[in-house]
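Q: Here's a chain of 262 amino acids. Please give me its 3D structure as C-alpha cells.
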Amino acid sequence: MFLDADGILMPSTGQPFTHVLKPAGTSRFEALPAIEWQSMELGRAAGFIVPAIALVAMPDGMPHALVVERFDIRTGLEDMRRLALEDMTSILGVRAEDKYTGTMERIAAALRPLSTDPDADLLMVLRRALFAWLIADGDMHLKNMAVLKIAEPGGRDFGSVWMAPLYDAVTTRVFPNLQTDRMALKIGGKDERLKRADFRRFAATAGIPAAAADTSMDELAAALARGLDALVLPPPLTDGSAGAERAAQMREIVREPLASFE
C-alpha cells in the first residue's frame, strides 16, 4: 500500500510501496490483526524497535486490518542509502519452506561474523527468543527474523548490518487448535517448558556474558509487565468484537509466564 501526505491509504500501483496491509483471516482467525497489533505494541513497550502500525477499518463489515509501515526502504528522495533486508532462511542457507527448522544457537553462530555490532545483536537474539516465549509466539520462524543491511551513499559495501526491527510478532496460543503451540525454533534443544536456566545456557553458548544476559532478561520482563498494565487499547480491542475478546484472552496468556519467570 501507499500512504500519501494527506493520510490516504491506497494500493501502491504506480506509487511507492510504503506500507503493508494485513487483513483479517478466516476460519476463526478473524482476530489476527488485533492480536498482532497488541503483540507488536507489547514489543514496543518491552524495548524493541517496532515500525509504525495501526488498525484500520475495512469495508463491508470486515474486521479491522493491520497496516504496517515498511522499515526496509529509504525515507525520501533525498535519502541515497541502499538498504537490504535478509531473513534467516537466506542467512542460514535454508529453503523458505523449511523456515521452522534450525535453532536459536544456529542463528547466533551465523550472526556473530555478519553483524557490525555482534555483542548487541546477540543480546537482541536472546531478547527476541525470550519475548517470543513470554507472549506465547509460536510463529517466530526463520523468515520472521532478519538483518537489515545499510550502505551509505557512495559506499561499496554494507557499512551497517544489524538485527532488523521486530515484525510479524503474534501470540499464537490464543487461536483455535493452537492452545498448546510451542516455540517455532528450539533453544537449548527445547521448544516448551522453558525456564530462565534455558535462556542462560543459550547466552553462554552464544558468548553473551552472564551478567549482561541476566540484566537484559530482567529488564525485558519488567518492561513487558509494565507495558501490559499500561497498554492503551484502540476501539477494535474494546468493542466486544471477536478481536477484542481474543485480545483480552491474550493478555491473560502473557501474564502467566511473566508471573513464573524467575
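Q: Can you summarize the key feature?
A: The radius of gyration is 19 Å.
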